[in-house]
Amino acid sequence: MVVGAGVGGLAAAARLAADSHEVLVLEQADAVGGKLGTEVVDGFVFDTGPSLVTMPWVLEELFAETGAPLADVLDLRRLAVACRYTFPDGTVLDLPGELADVPGALDAALGPGRGAQWTAFLGRARAVWDVTRGPFLESPISVRGMLRLSRRVGDVATVAPWRSLRGLGARYLEDPRLRMLLDRYATYTGSDPRAAPAALATVPWAEQAWGSWYVPGGLGRIAEALRTRVEELGGEVRTGAHVVGVVLVDGRAAGVRLADGTVLDADVVVANADAAEVYGHLVPGRAAARARRSIARATPSLAGFVLLLALDDPPADQPHHQVLFAEDYDAEFDAVFGRGGPARPVERPTVYVSAPDDPAVVPGPGTGAWFVLVNAPRHDPGGGVDWDRPGLAEAYADRLLDLMAERGLDVRDRVRHRTVLTPADLERRTSTPGGSIYGTSSNGARAAFLRPANRSPVPGLYLVGGSAHPGGGLPLVVLSARIVADLVRRDDASGQPR
Known about the structure:
The protein contains 17 helices and 19 strands. With about 500 residues, the protein is an alpha/beta fold. It folds into three domains: about 190 residues, FAD/NAD(P)-binding domain (3-Layer(bba) Sandwich); about 100 residues, no CATH class; about 130 residues. The strands form five sheets. A seven-stranded mixed beta sheet has the order 7-6-15-16-17-14-18. It has a five-stranded parallel beta sheet with strand order 9-2-1-13-19, with helices on one face. Strand 1, helix 1 and strand 2 form a beta-alpha-beta unit. Helix 2 runs parallel beside helix 17, helix 3 crosses helix 4 and helix 4 crosses helix 9. The model has no long low-confidence stretch (mean pLDDT about 95). InterPro entries: Amino_oxidase, Carotenoid/retinoid_OxRdtase.
């Protein structure tokens, strides 16, 4: 049984069904996808979560190992321009989607030698990837595995667990704009580059090595394709089914209880929900209490404030993705994580815009469906930002549109309608405490060990998704599903209690 029909839950369900398990997926919402959500307003289709696919081989592997190949199900298109970056000094960089073209583009936009700096950094990042891919990203995290890695002195030096992402970048990147570009990759895990580990250098390497991809019609189609795959394999996906508890028998997971009182039995329960929600509300007992304490020691990830803009006559020649950098990136992270005072909305945040040139997501020619995102502190009425405070969300939305205009992207007179999604909205939609997108951040050298493991301390219960190992983002969530399916298979074969 799988609780939650996000990408992690559906991917795990597909793998388990392919292994001949009888699979039932229970989703409290009326649609699948979880954080890979879709909003449709007057013919405009918006992705409300991830807006690009990286490491596409992870999806290709999933579909190939559970049935028909990905190419038979979804059309992935590689973006020629991965992202347009506008820096505070007005410099504009169109980062190519092909790795071989990146150094030349950096030299042309930022000045001679910048491509060489970035190439040198990516060389180190690739080495970190080679060391960490197996033991960190594709395997269950374990003390034994970490001890084995720690004995290889050269590998430890490569990963540099004592160094932050920003600290590693400083060794290679002299241009402050390149350092700002690198800082942004920490936000892929909801983290602060000053505290996130150097191992996150693998994020820009993976993105640029395998490119940035888009699914025509929107990334929400991935979730629908996964649902279809589960059902083709004989599994059932039931929406509108609100799970309120995991049933334990003799200390092991034996099913779930629904909000209407129905109890459904299961040999295995896979929870695709935020780990804090799982251990805080769904699972009773001492083991869950210990897991809650471990999660509490980690820093929650940042959240996001979103504008969904339906535009008439959008500006021409816009790239699919663009980033308008903050004038003071450190001030942004200070505000989001509550340094130098309580957490607060960022006055002048970095603005991320997804503007797909895709006729399938708009009602007609001359219109645009834009997704605008800024980093934001989590919803915390008791000690931080109360995003439900009357007037706050709309006032902040107005401020962001004004800020975009200041940075050269003025669409204020083109907005047909807008939808505002705050961290509080995300919390309600996805049962994610505070709207923290990735559960816990990667802030601190010990963060990876505080992230909940895929095999829970409760026998028969497994965790999958962005708040569990190995972390958030589409590819890692899909990898977490593979880890869970392998664990279930291994536990079945051993004949030991799960």
